[in-house]
Amino acid sequence: MTTLTPEDVRREPALQLAAGAGGGWLVIAGQELRDIWLSARGPAIVIGTSLLLSLLTYLAASNEELNIIDQRDTVNLLAQITMALAVGVSLLFTADCVSGERERETLESLLVTPVPRGQVALGKYLAAVSMWPVLLIVAIPYIWVLREGEGVFADAMLGALVVGTLLVIGFVSLGLLVSIFSGSNRLSLAVAFFIFVLLLAPTQLPLGGWFGDLITQTNPMTAGSTFLHRAIVKEHGWGEDLDLLIAPAVWAIAMTGVAFIAAGRLRLQGSFGR
Amino acid sequence: MAQASLAVDGISKAFGETRAVRGLSLDAAPGEVIGLLGPNGAGKTTAIRILTTIYAPDSGSFAVDGIPYTRPSAIRQRIGVLPESAGYPLHQSGEEFVQYFARLFGQSRKSARETAKTLLAEVGLAERAASPISMYSRGMRQRLGVARALVNRPRVLFLDEPTLGLDPAGQRQILALISEAATERGATVILSTHFLDEVEEVCSRVIILNRGEVIAEGPVADIKRRAAPRTARVRVPEENHESALSALKRAPGVGDAQAVNGGRGLISATLDGSDTNAPIRALLEAGIPILFFELEGGKLSDAFLALTGEAGA
């Protein structure tokens, strides 16, 4: 076996990776972050979210005739909207991240670098997740303005942070998984968005009876949404509804595990929709 | 003899019922430029994708710079690839693009910046380094692709149709870069192309694939010899037509001679052996002036067409 000296590594750039092979994900994440935040995409989403939250806050805070819901409900609504937007947008970013590269014919060049497949996926995953903390920070002033009484702000921010993080992790992993197997970007975006809407829809439905409870407990979106509603509006303590965090947590862990196992087997061509 | 930088032993790959590559073997030395030829669907791109670790072979094995194919990540450290249809992030500048890939090969920011600067100068893009790739012509993008493929000083460079769609000036620049990579960097170059004149210009050896199988392999001169001229076309003055025909028919080394399209003065002579001067000598000895003489065959394109035609028949 050949032993490399520092001189060999300095002379041969090809060998430098042996010294720093673990950093591929960081380089990819950095590039993806620049692509999101230094292009029009990221800032446009932030501005759009700000405008939406501004409108809701304005209606709730300044116009009592139009303000038909309680301010705690409004805080809950803002937190839920911010969370749903972050989940949806992050999901679409990862749904594009592999199938989009396939379609733009840039994937092959990436796959012939020594960066392991899992690290390629990790870099893209982290960049997509970055949308969530940014949108949460955007929501802070609006929730602050609308807070009423002690503890609402903290309940809302902490609840949104926990539930949103679990949901974003799960859905970003879902997007990655779909993208890895999709032969076309359109298919990937459509499938990922369909699953998102399918799981989001029950949060807007009146769920009752054993079936409603089952959906509430097992659907990560309804479970997370109900947890947040109870924490902000009903002023439940955290310990009262911990069971509602099981579905989002299981969703996050399971989807991440499956997505990264699949990422290790990332192929040039997708399996479906070629 | 220097260790082969690329050693391939009977690799095969099938997609369902289609056998894309069958038993491809080759050894390539450092600094050698090998042309991979074949009609569309011959298996060239699949062969390259196997050797660049994109596809795993179904059978057979290969090693790059002594690294076995079972260690794909280590192989990727030693190869440079310009894929057949390489896409580019159009919003990035050429400099950012090359730097990014240099970083993916483990270089520090500073080293990546230097690498990008050097390589872009080498491929003639120094002045456009800061321009977005969307502003590059196709030729410039291909040169950028070559620069990217060289960021890790590869032992083996795989170029899949690098001159496709380029104008003659663009083709010339790419060919010069290929020669430089082989002679100055000592890289083995595997060049897949449809352009046979390119192969004649830069390759020392060729492998011709057809339907996944190697149908010919060897130095360019040897392959050309396989399509050695078998026919000569001669034009003589009309009044010498009959005497030329009989002189050629009698001549040693000439199998047969006949008028072409019934034309007076134009004769086609079949050669018996490798003596391509036999018809000229026969006519001159008979005192018949030669107005025109042409050998048919003897070019790589003739060999390619003959070989792929035979294999396809």
Description:
The complex is a heterodimer of chains A (274) and B (313). By secondary structure, chain A is mainly α. Chain A has one domain (22-263). Helix content of chain A is 73%, strand content 0%. Chain A has 14 helices and no strands. Chain A is globular. Chain B is an alpha/beta fold and 313 residues long. Chain B has 11 helices and 14 strands. In chain B, a hairpin with a 6-residue loop joins β12 and β13 (266-271). Chain B is elongated, with a radius of gyration of 25 Å. The two termini of chain B are 39 Å apart. At the A-B interface, α2, α3 and α7 of A face α2 and α3 of B.
Brief summary of the model shown:
The complex is a heterodimer of chains A (274) and B (313). Chain A has 274 residues and is mainly alpha-helical. Chain A is built from 14 helices and no strands.
